[in-house]
Design brief:
This protein is mainly beta. The chain is built from no helices and six strands. Helices cover 0% and strands 50% of the residues.
Length: 70
Amino acid sequence: TTLCAGDTLLLHADIHTSATYLWSTGDSSVSASVYRPGLFAVTVTPSGGCTATDDIQVQFLTAADIFLGA
């Protein structure tokens, strides 16, 4: 996923059941906000279920320099 500099990406891992969440950012809520580039992962453990992990690579583009002359 590629975003523009200054943007924020909200990652949401809700599985609509009672579960615990652990993000690679250290967050333990159902969602995590991403402000920087990198690989972000979440591990979800439903109550009485099997653990699953997923990840996403996030990149940020820099804005182009514009010069209108002077």
